[in-house]
Specification:
The chain contains 14 helices and no strands. With 315 residues, the protein is mainly α. The longest helix has 33 residues, at 223-255. The protein is globular. The relative contact order is 0.12.
Length: 315
């Protein structure tokens, strides 16, 4: 029941914020800027939590009791929002914030964070470009950013010790090595989840089943596996159909060049969530579904006079 309440809570929060987004793009920008400001506050809290030499030798987040992978995810999303304001809205003064948030996300030591950071840079540049020459230029500029962050991860000593070593450990698996314990455990979680799905493929095992019925005693660290185990193929199609519906509509508008700048940001973030789902359980996460609500409002129902939502129904 506790996990059911968490899921219902996410649904309600997402629906309640939709009318606010649909009232106008100004509200969307207020939300995005507020997110950036909140990350600055979080960064200050982390900076004051421990001596700098300690912060640069451990994964960020540990000093304040926040999961390091979550820390990386939060700052990566902030990095992409600030990059959007820099290159799309032409507010170049925000570019240093993008660089700062990117470096902070790397110090979380999250391999998933650096991957979605790099992919997101390329996606945002491409999706916000309208002409072939602009796309080529975007690929060139985004490649410079990607090369720069990869170089930092392996050649800047403090970052190499936190992130570079973990990336090398992951790559060793593809080269026939053993990898670190965390990676091996997550691979075993995926295998166990697939076996559970095969046993009950239609409607799954129910909420929290992976944690309660496996020896791992925790969630599967993979949203695709978690949804398949929890709700089976029926729930998988039901859940991801919402995300795909928004993304596909956004891609259609981008292809037709009938879009506002916010659509390129929305599609980029939602596509990144699909990638991030390979390493996190998301379906009861409020922040992710706030951005789904934002994407829905910007892409599918940008007109506040159309569509329905919870406040409209209650009114």
């Amino acid at each position: 029941m506790r996990w059911a309440v968490s899921i219902v809570q996410v649904v309600i929060f997402g629906n309640l914020i939709v009318p606010y987004f649909r009232d106008g793009q100004r509200n969307v920008h207020i939300f995005l800027v507020s997110y950036l400001v909140s990350l600055v506050a979080l960064g200050i809290r982390v900076l004051l939590s421990a001596p700098l030499e300690l912060l640069m030798s451990t994964r960020l987040g540990e000093s304040i009791g926040v999961n390091a992978n979550l820390m990386g995810f939060l700052f990566v999303i902030g990095a992409h929002i600030s990059l959007y304001y820099s290159i799309v809205e032409r507010k170049w003064s925000v570019l240093p914030i993008f660089l700062l948030f990117s470096v902070v996300s790397l110090f979380s030591g999250s391999r998933r964070a650096i991957f979605i950071l790099l992919v997101g840079i390329v996606l945002l540049f491409i999706l916000s470009s309208k002409k072939p020459i602009h796309i080529l230029l975007a690929l060139f500029v985004s490649a410079l950013f990607v090369i720069g962050f990869v170089f930092l991860s392996f050649h800047w000593e403090p970052l190499r010790e936190i992130l570079g070593v973990r990336i090398q450990s992951l790559l060793s698996i593809f080269q026939g090595g053993t990898g670190d314990g965390s990676t091996v455990t997550r691979i075993n979680m995926v295998k166990t989840g697939i076996e559970m799905f095969y046993q009950k493929p239609i409607i799954g095992w129910g909420l929290h089943a992976f944690t309660d019925t496996t020896s791992f005693a925790t969630y599967s660290h993979n949203n695709y596996i978690e949804v398949l185990v929890t709700w089976g193929i029926v729930g998988f199609v039901w859940y991801y159909s919402f995300w795909l519906f928004v993304v596909m509509n956004g891609i259609k508008l981008l292809v037709r060049l009938e879009h506002s700048h916010l659509i390129s940001l929305s599609v980029t973030l939602l596509l990144l969530f699909f990638i991030d789902d390979f390493g996190v359980v998301r379906f009861y996460n409020e922040i992710s579904h706030f951005f789904l609500a934002l994407g829905f409002s910007v892409i599918v129902q940008p007109d506040s006079d159309k569509g329905i939502d919870i406040p409209t129904l209650l009114g």
